[in-house]
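Feature request disguised as a bug: please show the residue count (438) next to Putative proline/betaine transporter in the output. Example input:
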Amino acid sequence: MSKARMPWKNVIGGSVGNLVEWYDWFVYASFATYFAASFFPKGDPTAQLLNTFGIFAVGFFMRPIGGWLLGRYADRKGRKAAMTMTVTLMSASALLIAIAPTYDMIGGAAAVVLLVARLLQGISVGGEYAASATFLTEATPPGRRGFASSFQYVSMTAGQLVGLGLQIILQNSMTDEALKSWGWRIPFIIGALAAAVVFYLRRSLMETEAYGEESAGAHDAKDRGTLKALFAHKKEFLLVIALTMGGTVAYYTYTTYLTTYLSNTAGLSKATASTVSFCALFIFMCIQPAAGALSDRIGRRPLLITFGVGSTLGTVPLMYALSSVSGFWSALLLSLVGLLIITGYTSINAVVKAELFPTNVRALGVALPYAIANALFGGTAQYVALWFKDAGMEPGFYWYVAGCAAVSLVVYFTMRETRDAALTRSERGVAEAVPERV
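Example output, currently without the count:
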């Protein structure tokens, strides 16, 4: 491993936006049971949740658009510029939800306001992942990139923990009636203010060396960040979609959907389910850097293959076991098993994707195929799970998750190792002088 100093300012600046972005993204799902009735007609609570999570899924379908627009922007104007743009959009969307009128005030138009906010969030998150993943990869020396990029999921998980922690506090300090009436607005107000703070933090970052070389180099600026340039790398484009498929379904199953599953299916109280998720996600967050550092030593593929095997073979029995838990400790232990399995994907998937593409289309190459995979599989995970439950066939969802992981596992076995990818001229010079590691 390289002994180069860790650029902690870049790691913090590049990843902290993910905390706010994913805090806002996550509180929508975790508070959905409280505000669903505010935006849709009174009726079956499951139907209201389906409508609310349907809009959640729509936000994912905007991510390819956000990935294309902001990925292109990052490749043409810089990683720093794109990262400040994403948190600006997220602040605006969180504020819109916080002040949105309810169904009782304006009827069906309330759902339209919620939809618009989710569309803005989808655009923002679609660009944030790629901009931060590209920045963290390029701004870190070789031999430390797996470790540094793991902080993307550290910050993403931290955002979820802040949201869950706030939910636990509100659940214990407010009545259900107050939460459903107005308390659910509090986390969105906090998210809007936090995004404004991150905007100023990111303005002080320096652009990466790799992007600086590209912008001053011989590549035609008109082709930088374009679909034409991206599709010159069709194999890598399709590879990102396939390797993301299983990981994103498993990730949203054991994180975003976990609280709802423990409450609606296992029968735990909302407060207990939230506490289980909080503790499990905290431990999950802490092990990401260790897994990222391990990939710097042994390569990316072994971790991806471990996730693929574990998720393919373990999802069905694990979900069955979670459905019958009766208390906090059994739910926590089983949740940790699932999260430990997906760490093989979450800790390194960002750096793997960034290492697959050249600098002139790196952000777009990460953003667009990843966003497409998330729109098709990650964003719909909760909706698909609830659909199976509403149809009385909930175990079908377990097999769906395992099947997606199996497809990705095939890709992990056949893809090339990316650990030693050279991103700058100086790195290419060193790579030519040092024998390839095996």
